[in-house]
Amino acid sequence: MSSSSSSSFDVLVVGAGLSGLYQLHQLRERGLRVRGLEAGTDVAGTWYWNRYPGARCDSTAECYQYWFSDELLNEWNWSERYPAQAETERYLNYVADKFDLRRDIQFNTRVSAADFVAATGRWTLTTQTGEHFDAQFLVLATGGLSTPALPSIAGFETFQGSSFHTGRWPHEGLDFTGKRVGVIGTGATGIQVIQTIAPQVEHLTVFQRTATYAIPMRNPEYDAARMAELRQSYPAMKELVHNTFTGNDYDFGTVLFSDLTPAEREERLWTYWRDGSLKFWVGAFGELFADQTVNDYVSDFVRARIRERVQDPQLAAKLSPKDYGFGTRRVPLESGYFETFNRANVTLVDTTETPLECFTATGIKTRAGEHALDVMIFATGFDAGTGALTAIDIRGREGLLLRAAWAQDGVRAWLGLQVHGFPNMFMIMAPLSPAAAFCNVPTCSQQQADWIANCITHTRAQGSKSIEPSAQAEAAWGEHHDELANATLVPKTKSWYMGTNIAGKPRRLLAYVGGASTYRHACDKVAAEGYRDSVFS
Ligand code: NAP
Prior knowledge:
The protein is α/β, with parallel strands linked by helices. The protein has three domains: about 10-45 and about 100-145 and about 385-530, FAD/NAD(P)-binding domain (3-Layer(bba) Sandwich); about 150-210 and about 330-380, FAD/NAD(P)-binding domain; about 250-310, no CATH class. It has 16 helices and 20 strands.
């Protein structure tokens, strides 16, 4: 395509990760002319960019997949309960090949602007290289955690070593042999990197600002017998994941903390702990999300597990979260993370005691002195939810810029799917939906993509030029979102869930906390009632 050419479609889907691929397929199945636009050189989104050492899924393989094709479910074999990045990337490539999705995707194409043209009711997209595309509908499947966040540390440009953000990891990989490596960040990503590279590096210095509660991952291999067993359970599981809070195959327990004796509470926590999954987070005592007493109890239990594994009690204390409750930020699974700090070649620097001051040519300086480094790894997270959307100049009716509208009004998004003033625009995994943080991504992104495909089909079938949510419906959803959020303990804790990891981002819970199942019912009701909260023109 030449840089001045214009290409016309029914729908443009931005992003060819897990959500975008599925959306493309679903729309194409409905006979629509669709084009996918993807910044990377290939499919897989998160699993394409985040190829850092130790990257691994912490939803189980059987829940982290597509449900739309029985053939696919029968053909694809997972090798373990929590597949590594390369396996999930292979899976998404397999899907792209099997359903011939690549023929409708243009790679190496970063969208820089999207303009709604009121006269035609269509969107014009402009890419960084000046190409233009036009379509009636726009679906932004740009990922909730796709815009890397880098800390602002003075003197970075003077550092002579190499540096990498985990979300932009080099495809050729890195050899850490003989290297002095620093890692900033101890969230889900940092934990995976740290526990993986510690045995490979000469010395590892971990710069921790906030300690993390984490659960030991139990990751058995899946052989043919296990896969056969799982396949038997797929039909029921496909139903189940859409009917739980997190879109996984487990839910809040029905047993109440207050009904149990101390011994019974302990036993219940141990049972869930030994499962080696995120079930411990949600399933053991769901009250921990709103009841401070229960939360304190569970937090103490997890801190005790850290003390058991770290030999030096002072180090164990530093690695134990103190100022926030278990489960109020994302809980990672880990494999030997805490034991990593028993190694002679690993140093923990608590940056609350000795803050990072500046980079030098040979390393990084804290208040206590310089740490010499050959490589610096930024496991510093993402501008979650809004980052990928506000990075594009999206202009709706009357030239309203999405970035400016959200800066002025706060994020507003009806069902987290559409924004008033931006007709025919849909978002997957965007703020104010569970998919933004509290849902197993495949479950919620497939649900959202199905809803979007149905909504587009409905709009076209009734001959409407455009659809957008009413301002009232959008405001009501925002109020409902905030009311539920503020009834939990989550807003008390600083994290990307609350937007506090990005300077200047308003503190507000990003994801809808009513649960994936409740959310799906809300979306289904809207569709069943003919999208009555929407304005058609
Ligand atoms: P994150 O949870 O936002 O963690 C970023 C880390 O960087 C935090 O420890 C943060 O400290 C630290 N940090 C940032 N700026 C810093 C600074 N200037 N000085 C010191 N420390 C700084 O990001 P993430 O670990 O990339 O994870 C993001 C999300 O991706 C996860 O929560 C999860 O949903 C997803 N993820 C999933 C998997 C999986 O499935 N296994 C793996 C990786 C990621 P503070 O906490 O003090 O801000």
